[in-house]
Amino acid sequence: MIPAFFGLAGTHITDDERALFRACDPAGYILFKRNIDTPDQVRALTDSLRALSGNAQVPILIDQEGGRVARLRPPHWPEFPPPAMFGEAFAKAPLTAMAAARANAQALGVMLAELGVNVDCLPLLDVKAEGMHEVIGDRSYGTDPAMVASLGRATLDGLKLGGCVGVVKHIPGHGRGTLDSHLALPTVTASAEELETDLIPFRRLADAPMAMTAHILYTAWDETFCASLSPTIIRDIIRGSIGFDNLLMSDDLGMQALGLQPGGNTMGGRATGVIEAGCDIALHCSGDFAEMREVADALGPISATAAERLARAMAWPVAPAGTVTKLAERRDALLAAA
């Protein structure tokens, strides 16, 4: 097994993908809108990925946050609200908002589990800051780190009850980024003391089963490498100060922020860079076959520590409970009452 999560090109596994995946045995997969058609098709795709891996618990990820970041959409799947909506409710009725966020995440988890998707890249623990780029925007719960932590906890708990693994992101915090890391390398010049605010939600949810790094340069911690590529940040801040000791994946290798870093000229260099920095898993999302083959050729076997963290994460959720409709109705009633 190699320490990579791979995307796919379309709605089924191609012959070339099947051969590559058999040869390199990626640790898991991630789905996007290009991979989604109908519920039956998605279930068939996830079933085929499990059969190919020979692992009933192989991680199959998706970004189903609600709002504008949702791979599953009507008419086959319901709309879910953006995280900011729960932040707005929290300002009026904190306990009610947390209950609504928990019900919402449980509904998400049940919906995904029915499709054979077992990891949702949620919740965002990015604390909204002045000048924040809209790539985060309403995906953030808000500006109060304690509120972000509380709603993040409720969301994580809901996903667990819905049968899905949750992923906290973007550790150690994307809230101060003024550029979109898909297109550029955001640089945060806040002091270490100022950055303590950003760490609060991640510290409070340091027991989360998985986390995803931020492709952001924090000059107070490392003037050369962004968090995903920084041994210093991963060792001293993520593993040390935050205390996160579970599965750590990079954000997408295809984002241009990594291309602007030393060693970022090749996809293989980006993949080895994040693993050597201390990430357990390199995430490659595009489904570009040549890039996946390059990543597979560059990476060695997954480390024993990373494999143990992966197994522990996949054992985290409980059997799905509830129905999407009833849970969504409970969420809506709670939000209306806040």
TrEMBL record:
GO terms classed as biological process: carbohydrate metabolic process; peptidoglycan turnover
Transmembrane residue ranges: none
Domain Glycoside hydrolase family 3 N-terminal: 15-299
Catalysis: reaction(s): Hydrolysis of terminal non-reducing N-acetyl-D-hexosamine residues in N-acetyl-beta-D-hexosaminides
Keywords associated with the record: Glycosidase, Hydrolase
Leading EC class: hydrolase
InterPro entries: GH, Glyco_hydro_3_N, Glyco_hydro_3_N_sf, NagZ_Beta-hexosaminidase
The EC number(s) this enzyme carries: 3.2.1.52
Gene3D superfamilies: Glycoside hydrolase, family 3, N-terminal domain
Molecular function, one GO term: beta-N-acetylhexosaminidase activity
Similarity comment text for this entry: Belongs to the glycosyl hydrolase 3 family.
Name under which the protein is recorded: beta-N-acetylhexosaminidase
Taxonomic source organism: Sandaracinobacter neustonicus
